Amino acid sequence: MVPISYVFGLSAALFGIGVCGVLVRRNIIVMIMSIELMLNAANLAFVALGRSLGSTDGQVIVFFVITVAAAEAAVGLAIVISIFRSRETANADEFNLMRW
Amino acid sequence: MTAWLFGFLATLALVSALGVILQRNPVHSLMALIVTLLVTAVFFIALGAVTIGFLQAIIYAGAIMVLFLFVIWLLNIQAEEREAGHLALKSFGALAAAALVAELLAIAGRAPAPEAAVKPSPAYGTIATLAAALFSHYLIAFEATSLLLLVAIVGAVALARRMPRRRSTAASPAAASVSATGQDVSAPEVSRRAASA
Amino acid sequence: MFIDLLIGAVKAVVVLLLVLNLTALLLWFERKGSALIQDRVGANRANLLGLGARLGMPNLGLINTLLADPVKLFTKEDFVPDGADRFLHWLAPFLALFPVLVTFAVVPIGDAVTIAGHRIVLQAASLHDDALYVLATIGIGVYGIALGGWASNNRWSLLGGIRASAQMISYELAMGLGVVAVVMTFGTLSLQEICRSQGGVWFGWLPRWGIFVQPVAFLMLLAAGMAESKRVPFDLPEAESELVSGYFTEYSGSKQAVFMMTDFAEVALIAVLLTTFFLGGWQVPYLYRDGFILPGGVHWALSGPAVAILGVISFFIKTLVLCCLQLLVRWTLPRFRYDQLMRFGWKFLVPVGLLNLVATAFVIVLAGH
What we know:
Largest interface: A-B, 70 and 97 residues
Number of strands of chain B: 0
Structural class of chain B: mainly alpha
Shape of chain A: elongated
CATH topology of chain A: Helix Hairpins
Distance between the termini of chain A: 54 Å
Structural class of chain A: mainly alpha
Number of helices of chain B: 7
Number of helices of chain A: 3
Helix content of chain B: over 70%
Strand content of chain B: under 5%
CATH architecture of chain B: Up-down Bundle
Order of helices and strands of chain A: HHH
CATH topology of chain B: Four Helix Bundle (Hemerythrin (Met), subunit A)
Oligomer: heterotrimer
Largest sheet of chain A: none
Number of domains of chain A: 1
């Protein structure tokens, strides 16, 4: 059995990669994907902690996170589509107006 | 989970996660993300959360990622050119992320030792245990989730709908994307019912 | 320890070979069956040293498609179009085939048998959450098709890929609702348990098969499954008259053969799942652990191995009948329009599935399980 701190370490690394993606990439779709990566890293930590405590709560939270991620992806991508219609770009730096 | 299995899966997860942010073609990024999600699902199963692992594969990898694929196609996003500028900004981003990882790793080092870990019961992670928790202690949150999904469906359709006065060329993928949006937010409904069964 | 590993490996190989052989058999049946339906001879050219004529047949019959078709496909040039994403173009067919093949791992082809003190479950891998596993692998199967269409750098392919992925994830929902209704009825996610609880009879004569409890779910899963396998009434992704051949327009040689194999493996998969959920899987009517007990009270004792073999045979007969039914539908019905397809999935199958689910839940609560 691997120590639970290893799984935490992996989760931290995945989260860091996600943060790096959001900060470095300018493509809005890839940024949203990086956010999914961060959510996923957090899920991993929840499940690992739930396992080490022997409790189901961690899994329940992951269940809710997956549901919220579905809603977030649907609405977020709909916003991207509607911005893309007017600005014709997926580069986040070009989204510099508060109206469209 | 044995050490070699952990090592293999962790390497796979890290390489594919790096692929998400390093690939210049969004479709390749998406493929890397799907691999990461599936590897995480395997991690969940190895950690005893079998049901959640399968739900991750069904909903996250099987439905939400298809929605991303549709949007990439709909917007016809090509591979990015390597741009010269923003080097300072990018190195700052990488540094900030590295600092965050260092901090998180320091916290992870203080996690409970393996001998302190509780031996889980045989029912741990089964669909019955999960459903029992969802339908008793977390009932209100669960119902709120269904409301959230409904709002998300309506919001996504309202946002992505084509304005009647504007006409552009891509007609059929738009219809596909709307239906994908609808499917996507209702996919958790299926799993919710699966959990209740 | 070692013997268990060996048993596991043998089971995996046997299941894989069974699926691949079933696939080849379906290819032959498709070619000859379609010829029969369309009143022509069909697939009668391949010949080897006049062997067929010497045996009194016009050609080599079964060998024709089992041997000649693969040889033809695997020796053709493997063409990759200009501007294609070479890696994904190469990967896509296998990405399509792999999830379908691994799904067969959880399908029980027979009851547990005891050989030389080892209890062997005739199921390559028995999980506790088989039904979820099936849904997961079917969900992952979308990517091979979608990427095949995208990576070819061809408008027709891309349109086919988009159609295929939209269609597959739409009908996955109906499929999920059908599976959930079945799972609720039997109270377990394990396919082996579902098969076991379909043994025995009601009223002294009616086998306790799922189809008699969940007829609506059976029809739903049949329709959704045929849409998942993207074959004729639902073959919008490869509609020849509109898209050349859809997502595999730019595929040739062995890669196209893999796509075709995926098609037939999906047909077999749907048949296998329907058999397991609704037709009792490996159950033979009136056959129990120690022999037949017919409705009239006639008892005919059989030994354990004979019962197990009968079970496996019955499983394959049911599977073949359902495969033939799907092929028959394919050569009988014309193609849907795309809006009809979406309307059927979203506005008919999903509401019916939800109603069926509510009705099932009511009955379960009233019956007081």
